[in-house]
C-alpha cells in the first residue's frame, strides 16, 4: 500500500505559480499617436520656455537678432529680487484662501442640492450653470459695473443706506479690498464646478448606510464627518488640487480688475507679473523664467496629493 508521502514523491513537486501572460501590444500601439500629440502640444512649449529662460531674449530678438545664452543669470536675478518673493507670497496666500472658500461654499451648495426637492434642485443647478457658462470677460464687465467708483451699484446702494463715506469710493485702490473683491469673483466663477462635482460624489453615498447611522443615534454632523466625507474624500482631494492649480494661475480676473482702477505693482499675482514682464516690458526671458518657477511651484503644492495617489496605486 502506497503512503501519501511516496505518492507525492512519485508525482513530484507541484508548480503553484501560473505562467505569466504576455501583455498584448495592441493597446499600447493604439495609444501611441495620442501620446505623441500630447508630447508635441505640451512638451515643445515647455522646452521652448526653458531654453528661452536661459537666454537674453527681449525686443531685439523679436526682430531677428540672435539670442545670447546667459544660462542661470535670469534665475539668479529673479530669486534675488525682493519684489518677486512678494508676488509669490501674495499669490500663494490668495490661492490657498480662495481655494478653501471655494471648497466650503461648493460643499454647502452640494449638500443643499442633495437635501432639497427636485424642483428646487433643478432651479439651483440651472442658475449655477448660467453663471458657469458666462464668458469671463462678459462676467468681469458686469462686476466692474457693480463696483465702479463713479457709477457703481454697490456705492449707490451703500450711500442710499446712509453710508456717505462710500460716495465715489474706489474699492480697487486699496490692495486688501482689491483682493477681497477678486476672491469673491473667482469663487463665484468656481463654485458651480465644485458643487456639481461634490454633488456627483454625494449621489454615490449609500442611503442605507446613512439611515443605519441615523437609527444608531448619529447626528447630521457626525454622519457628515464620519460617513460622507470619508466616502467622497477622493473627489474632495482632486477638486481641491485643481482649485489650487487654477487659483495659483489666475490671470484674467486680476488683469481686468487692475485695468479698472488699481495700482498693478501692488496687486500683481504670478500670472499678471509674467504678463507684465513679457508683454509689458518685452523681457521674454525673465517671463519664461517666472513661468518655469510657477510650474515648479505648482508641482510642489500638488506633490502631497500626487504622492498619496502613488501610494494608493502601490497598495
Task: Characterise this structure.
- The chain contains 16 helices and 2 strands.
- The protein has a two-stranded antiparallel ribbon with strand order 1-2.
- The protein has helices at residues 4-11, 26-53, 59-62, 73-79, 82-115, 118-133, 136-147, 153-160, 175-202, 207-215, 220-231, 233-248, 252-259, 264-267, 270-280, 284-314, and strands spanning 55-56, 68-69.
- The radius of gyration is 28 Å and the shape is flat.
- It has 315 residues and is mostly helical.
- It has one domain (52-314): MetI-like fold (Orthogonal Bundle), CATH 1.10.3720.10.
- The chain crosses the membrane at residues 25-47, 87-112, 124-146, 178-202, 223-246, 284-306.
Give me the secondary-structure topology:
Blueprint: H1 4-11, H2 26-53, E1 55-56, H3 59-62, E2 68-69, H4 73-79, H5 82-115, H6 118-133, H7 136-147, H8 153-160, H9 175-202, H10 207-215, H11 220-231, H12 233-248, H13 252-259, H14 264-267, H15 270-280, H16 284-314
Antiparallel strand pairs: 1-2
Helix pairs in contact: 2-16, 5-9, 5-12, 6-9, 7-13, 9-12, 10-11, 12-16, 15-16
**Which strands sit side by side, in order, in the main sheet?**
1-2
CATH fold label: MetI-like fold
Counting DSSP E segments of at least 2 residues, the number of strands comes to 2
| Class per helix and strand makeup | mainly alpha
User: What is the domain total for the residues?
Assistant: 1
CATH class reads Mainly Alpha
Overall pLDDT metric: 86
> What is the end-to-end distance?
49 Å
Examine the secondary-structure arrangement and name the CATH architecture.
Orthogonal Bundle
Choose one word for the global shape: flat
State the helix count.
16
Q: Specify the biggest β-sheet.
A: 2 strands, antiparallel
Listing every helix as H and every strand as E from the N terminus to the C terminus, the arrangement reads HHEHEHHHHHHHHHHHHH
Q: Provide the helix percentage.
A: over 70%
Low-pLDDT stretches? 6-11
Rg calc: 28 Å
- CATH level-4 homologous superfamily: MetI-like
Pfam family, one: BPD_transp_1
Membrane topology: Multi-pass membrane protein
Protein name: Sugar ABC transporter permease
Family: Belongs to the binding-protein-dependent transport system permease family.
Amino acid at each position: 500500500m502506497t503512503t501519501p508521502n511516496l505518492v507525492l514523491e512519485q508525482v513530484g513537486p507541484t508548480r503553484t505559480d501560473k505562467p505569466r501572460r504576455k501583455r498584448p501590444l495592441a493597446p499600447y500601439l493604439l495609444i501611441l499617436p495620442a501620446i505623441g500629440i500630447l508630447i508635441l502640444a505640451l512638451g515643445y512649449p515647455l522646452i521652448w520656455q526653458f531654453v528661452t529662460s536661459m537666454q537674453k531674449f527681449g525686443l531685439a530678438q523679436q526682430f531677428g537678432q540672435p539670442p545670447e545664452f546667459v544660462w542661470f543669470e535670469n534665475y539668479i536675478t529673479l530669486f534675488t529680487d525682493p519684489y518677486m518673493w512678494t508676488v509669490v507670497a501674495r499669490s500663494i496666500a490668495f490661492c490657498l484662501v480662495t481655494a478653501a472658500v471655494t471648497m466650503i461654499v461648493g460643499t454647502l451648495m452640494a449638500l443643499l442640492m442633495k437635501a432639497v426637492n427636485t424642483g428646487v434642485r433643478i432651479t439651483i443647478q440651472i442658475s449655477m450653470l448660467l453663471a458657469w457658462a458666462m464668458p469671463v470677460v462678459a462676467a468681469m464687465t458686469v462686476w466692474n459695473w457693480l463696483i465702479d467708483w463713479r457709477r457703481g451699484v454697490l456705492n449707490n446702494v451703500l450711500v442710499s443706506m446712509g453710508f456717505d463715506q462710500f460716495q465715489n469710493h474706489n474699492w480697487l485702490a486699496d490692495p486688501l479690498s482689491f483682493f477681497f473683491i477678486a476672491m469673491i469673483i473667482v469663487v463665484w466663477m468656481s463654485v458651480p464646478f465644485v458643487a456639481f462635482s461634490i454633488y456627483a460624489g454625494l449621489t454615490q453615498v449609500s442611503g442605507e448606510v446613512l439611515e443605519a447611522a441615523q437609527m444608531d443615534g448619529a447626528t447630521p454632523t457626525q454622519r457628515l464627518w464620519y460617513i460622507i466625507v470619508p466616502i467622497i474624500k477622493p473627489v474632495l482631494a482632486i477638486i481641491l488640487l485643481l482649485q489650487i492649480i487654477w487659483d495659483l494661475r489666475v490671470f484674467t480676473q486680476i488683469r481686468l480688475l487692475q485695468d479698472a482702477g488699481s495700482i498693478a505693482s501692488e496687486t500683481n499675482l504670478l500670472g499678471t507679473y509674467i504678463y507684465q514682464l513679457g508683454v509689458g516690458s518685452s523681457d521674454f526671458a525673465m517671463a519664461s523664467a517666472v513661468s518655469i518657477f510657477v510650474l515648479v511651484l505648482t508641482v510642489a503644492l500638488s506633490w502631497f496629493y500626487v504622492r498619496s495617489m502613488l501610494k494608493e496605486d502601490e497598495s
